[in-house]
Write a structure and sequence with these properties.
By secondary structure, this protein is of the alpha/beta class. It is 30% helix and 26% strand. The protein has 13 helices and 24 strands. Helix 5 links the parallel strand 10 and strand 11. Helix 1 runs parallel beside helix 6, helix 3 runs parallel beside helix 5 and helix 4 runs parallel beside helix 5. The longest helix has 13 residues. It is globular. Bound molecules: uridine-diphosphate-2(N-acetylglucosaminyl) butyric acid. Uridine-diphosphate-2(N-acetylglucosaminyl) butyric acid binds next to helix 1, helix 4, helix 5 and helix 11.
């Protein structure tokens, strides 16, 4: 699918942010830990959620999904062998490993997919499961986990991995005794997953700090829960506002975007923020930035690619140092095609602005790379064509309408 896109008019944008993809995925999977009905609000209607619901629907549990509310009805019989191609279409399918291990003590599943950001091992997850007494078979196509009894463990992560922290929480909530995850991730999505598990009756403390402690409970109950809004979607539109004519971003927890707000302010943008709204006013003569990507509360890797477009519109040299996914650079070739002056040296991405970006035929290789191209194409009043736009739809809800609020005209073309 192709996105035909151009800037139609100068307009102060206004957008309301949807639920967080990276909370929704693990929380939907975590719902399978209980034998009772779960109702989730603010679930974004994005491709990754639809793919996950297809996987779950084929395993047994039934779901209804309308107006961003998802209801999951458990079933007694659940398949624990998941050889479904949908598993390979997304990264977050790997949360089925932690949940099924916890609940059924076994799972056999295709390897997870997701954006190609270079080598993305899941050794922290698997080492953790092993520490809990799991027998693991890992091949190039599938993973099989089996445990007679799961044991509590102390996990010392080599890196504060978001996925490993969540998967180990999921695997441990029903394990008798005390589990500790040291050097865990502190992202808002971790807190959201922990809050959801607590709403089901789990005993978890320390989420949002470097150490999470879990006291296993016998069973989890159903619950009704509203997930947080998507800080990465909000950040993407905030950057769009900064490169175009400004805008208001609503329904965002501005504390989750502290690092971006600070960067924009230091670059001379005029930013007003209160608890849940961010307003960015258009300003010329922005100053170049120098940012190192780091785990939360550092600058998020998921905004590094969109941020590069801002760099192209600022006079002077900006620098983005990507320390988490060093190969997260698919957007660079495409931005260069449009006329951007960008060079890469190891982890450092140097952007020399200010350069106009021409309309082009572009190829989107990964989700946030696609977002970067959408922003870049929004700068030009001639149409650009972004191929493989499906990858963008994996993580952004209703983007055509939201972009239109910024004066962007775009269509999906088969
Ligand atoms: N790592 C390992 N071994 C592991 C796990 C991670 O070496 O077992 C390394 C990774 O290779 C990477 C670093 O640790 O260098 C951090 O990876 P992390 O596990 O934190 O990332 P993830 O769980 O695979 C999630 C999000 C990503 C987001 C990162 C970082 C989901 C489904 N994915 O990935 O989101 O970039 O955390 O915040 O939640 C996106 O939304 O576009 C996206 C890629």
């Amino acid at each position: 699918m192709i996105l035909k896109i151009r800037r139609k008019e100068k307009k102060f944008g206004d957008v309301t942010i949807s639920g967080a993809k990276n909370s929704a995925i693990p929380i939907i999977v975590a719902s399978l830990l209980t034998n009772e009905k779960v109702i989730l609000h603010n679930i974004p209607d994005i491709k990754d959620v639809r793919t996950l619901l297809e996987i779950i629907g084929k395993l047994g549990p039934q779901c209804t999904f309308t107006n961003n509310t998802l209801t999951i009805y458990p079933t007694k019989k659940v398949k624990t062998t998941i050889f479904d191609d949908n598993v390979r279409k997304m990264r977050g399918s790997y949360y089925l490993l932690g949940v099924f291990l916890s609940k059924y003590k076994k799972i056999k599943m295709y390897n997870q997919g997701g954006c190609d950001l270079g080598y993305r091992p899941i050794n922290f997850h698997l080492d953790g499961f092993k520490r809990m007494g799991t027998h693991i078979i890992e091949t190039t196509t599938f993973i099989s986990l089996k445990a007679r009894k799961l044991l509590p463990a102390i996990h010392n992560l080599d890196f504060p991995s978001v996925g490993a922290t969540i998967n180990l929480m999921l695997a441990s909530v029903l394990v008798k005794g005390k589990t500790i995850i040291n050097n865990c991730a502190k992202e808002p999505e971790i807190i959201d997953v922990a809050n959801f598990l607590k709403a089901m009756g789990a005993n978890i403390s320390g989420e949002g700090t470097s150490t999470i402690t879990i006291m296993g409970v016998k069973a989890l109950s159903g619950c009704e829960y509203t997930i947080i809004s998507d800080r990465i979607e909000a950040g993407t539109y905030a950057i769009l506002a900064a490169i175009l004519n400004g805008g208001t971003i609503r329904n965002v927890n501005t504390q989750h975007l502290h690092s971006l707000i600070k960067l924009l302010q230091e670059s001379n943008c005029v930013v007003y923020s209160n608890v849940d709204t961010l307003t960015i006013e258009q300003k010329d003569n922005l100053k170049p930035f120098n940012i190192t990507i780091a785990p939360f509360p550092g600058f998020p890797t998921d905004l590094g690619q969109p941020l590069a477009v801002l760099g192209t519109q600022i006079e002077g040299r900006s620098l983005i140092t990507e320390t988490i996914f060093k190969k997260r650079v698919s957007h660079i070739t495409e931005l260069k095609k449009m006329g951007a002056n960008i060079s890469i040296l190891d982890e450092a991405i140097y952007i020399d602005g200010k350069t106009p970006l021409s309309s082009q035929k572009l190829y989107a290789s990964d989700l946030r790379g696609a977002a970067s191209l959408v922003l870049a194409a929004s700068l030009n009043s001639d149409f650009s064509y972004i191929y493989n736009i499906e990858t963008f739809l994996r993580g952004y809800e209703n983007p055509l309408e939201k972009l239109a609020n910024f004066g962007i005209e775009c269509y999906l073309v088969e």
